[in-house]
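Support request, please re-run this one:
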Amino acid sequence: MNNELSATTLVIFGVTGDLSRRYLLPALSEICQSSEIRAELKILGVSRREVAVLDILDDKTRSLDEQFQVMQMDYQQPQEYQELSEKLTQLGSAQTIFYFAVPPEAVLPIVNNLGAIGLNTAQHKLLMEKPFGTDMASARTLIEETGRQFKEDQIFRIDHYLAKEMAQNIAVFLGSNVLFRDVWNNRFIEKIEVAVEEQIGIEGRGKFYEQTGALRDIVQSHLLQLAALTLMEPCPDVFDMSEVRPRRLAALRQLKADPASVVKGQYDGYKEEAGVPDSAVETFAAVTLTSADPNWQGVPIRLITGKNLDKRLTEIRVYFKKSQSAQANLLRLRVQPKEGIELELWVKKPGYEQDLQKLPLDFNYQQYFDRLPDAYEQVIVDAVRGRANLFASSEEVLASWEILQPLLDRWQDYPLKIYKSGDLAETILAAQ
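Re-run finished. Output below.
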């Protein structure tokens, strides 16, 4: 593979925000200092208020000083995009990528103003953060409006979980290991769980969470994409990444949510933290899916997410069918933390008695690799290269909303369970 990246200007709308400072700029610093790739990147930060470069960069990102510039502009004012266009001409890169680190309501005005000034040619790309709408109708509007200015192959919709190393490796793992590839179906698998559990609460993002909630924030994007990766038909060539998106989409289109399976919860203290005394927004959500794919018919796929739980993890749990209790029955694909793969095995316990014990056969990436690229690094590098497999297509976004829209239509009808901070997800589910 060519490890040299095309000369690129990355324009960051919202460069002074938390997303940019905490994640995006550190990722850019790692990319530019990496020995694995040669990156010719210029960074133009766009801010609504006047700010200096040294006010944005810190000790971790100071290495970007020479290639980093800042300009002030009002996103809502069309005439200010002429100055942006002139600035990009001066920088003279082969391509320009616009990164949207701004609130959702600011996205379409920026997209339309970029199109109006002609900053939407084949040399221009969009890197867009979720949420991609709040329901089926708003997602379709966002896609249609963006599509009037930019072609689909210019739009890169970020799902950071798809860019995590273990998530990328699911297709390789299933396609390259005959031990699992040939049993990856309803003949051998009893059920699948996909979980994103967090120990943190909303961390001051009450306004955002009141507009989204766990179902929109995590289930619609991260969990459904991980489920699609797990259920999709393995690629004949595991490194033909062009096959991944259409196969994920095919898997999504076979899924349907069971309305009777919904569990909705809110951690005790959320109302005070969000400043909304009568809030009914969920911080915990679980739903079971079924697939019409003949390979997966009869296998329940449980999606689970929650905040302020007892632990932090993202993993896919695959339970194999068993004819007796003493059989290997659980495979864990750990996306975070401690990315890796764990298979539970039954072994004879040492000693004079005939006792069995369940033990893990464990592979951990950090045992063999010095460093795993951060998801933000991966999405930037892949966007520069034009590789789309780690990004959600417009069809995938709509397919995800189509699965959840029947639940959203009756979301207020589901009872809201109040749970204690630090509870186990299993405890909340058992109280259904």
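The first strand starts at residue 8 and ends at 13. The mean pLDDT is 90.
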